Amino acid sequence: AQKITQTQPGMFVQEKEAVTLDCTYDTSDQSYGLFWYKQPSSGEMIFLIYQGSYDEQNATEGRYSLNFQKARKSANLVISASQLGDSAMYFCAMRQRRLTQGGSEKLVFGKGTKLTVNP
Amino acid sequence: EPEVTQTPSHQVTQMGQEVILRCVPISNHLYFYWYRQILGQKVEFLVSFYNNEISEKSEIFDDQFSVERPDGSNFTLKIRSTKLEDSAMYFCASRLTGPGAQYFGPGTRLLVL
Q1: What pLDDT is recorded for position B43?
Q2: How far apart are CA B51 and CA A95, in angstroms?
Q3: Do B31 and A105 touch (CB under 8 A)?
């Protein structure tokens, strides 16, 4: 079974500094995808970034980048130049493909990391 | 920018009552999902839906739960007889096709008393 592990329950960072949120995963699939979502205190889940297992380049989206190390099975999120609005829960998730009709591709989530950006 | 919408944003119900949570996925998306998040816990998969039928469901998704896409735009989750432990945030998500991201709605916070 697939599993996502986020070992940092909480992280603190100073405004304008970079921060890395850790995510390790376990899967026997050759093809998989990794996602990061942000959940502010208001509760919505905001998609941030995606990395496919066959992508050779690390994914980047603005201030977000994904440090993908396939051999280590890690997919850490790096947020550069942190802003106060980055304070939120961050969830790492893996796409679990179901090779039947419909290709369900449900997401399996980690427990999350609460990031606090200090002014 | 297109987005997933959900109604209501909050719902309070008595144990044993039926609730229907509504979602409007992004219009050209083909895959639809329901997840739930019990307060302070991680997000858990409930069910996925494609081509007007369930493609996968979790062990949480028992006979008390059902999903429907009644009119080509709405996607609903019905809980027939709510239990206290059904109290959670329920998220609808949709995906276009291929290995793309799932886009989540803002959630419905359900409280069962």
Answers
A1: 95
A2: 20
A3: yes
